[in-house]
Amino acid sequence: MIPEKSEATVGQLLGTLANDTGALVRQELHLAATEMTEKAAAAARHAGLIAAGGALLHIGCIALFAGLLAALQAYLPLWASAAIVGLVLVGSGVAIVQTGLTALRQLDPLPRTALSTLSPTVFEQKETV
User: What is the pTM of this model?
Assistant: First the structure.
């Protein structure tokens, strides 16, 4: 147990400061790790949107190609339906890919909360000495 501030020696005060600083750094590292985990999970979700959009684009291109082949035949309903389905799938895929890319561009990879709390806290510790 540390005595009152008026009775504490310089060594005891420096020891307390070292312990408090160590605990603060550990807490800040834990906060940064938690924040980075959340950001990585968000990035994974956005990457999943990009993959889903890419898959729809691929399917849409296949449907458009099938529509083109069918257009060479004399059956109008076959190629028209394939072309319409292809355009819908391509449009959906582009929208999903754009949504994922926009979300990834807006994702800030830095642990801003940890960084914002670290700087003032370190300066507060220096002022108490």
Answer: 0.43
- Is 36 within the bounds of a domain? yes
Domain-located, residue 2: no
Q: Is residue 1 part of a domain?
A: no
Percent of the chain with pLDDT over 70: 81
Task: Work out the average pLDDT over 28-44.
Answer: 86
Looking at per-residue pLDDT, the higher value among 84 and 6 belongs to 84
Contact 31, 114 (CB under 8 A): yes
Its domain, for residue 75, covers: 12-128
Burial of 106 (0-12, 13-18, 19+ CB in 10 A): exposed
User: The tokens of 28 are what?
Assistant: 């800040």
pLDDT of residue 80: 75
5 occurs within a structural domain: no
How many domains does one find in the chain?
Answer: 1
**99-102 long-range contacts, CB within 8 A, separation 24+:** 99/49, 99/53, 100/46, 100/47, 100/48, 100/49, 100/50, 100/53, 101/50
Residue whose structure tokens are 């889903």: 52
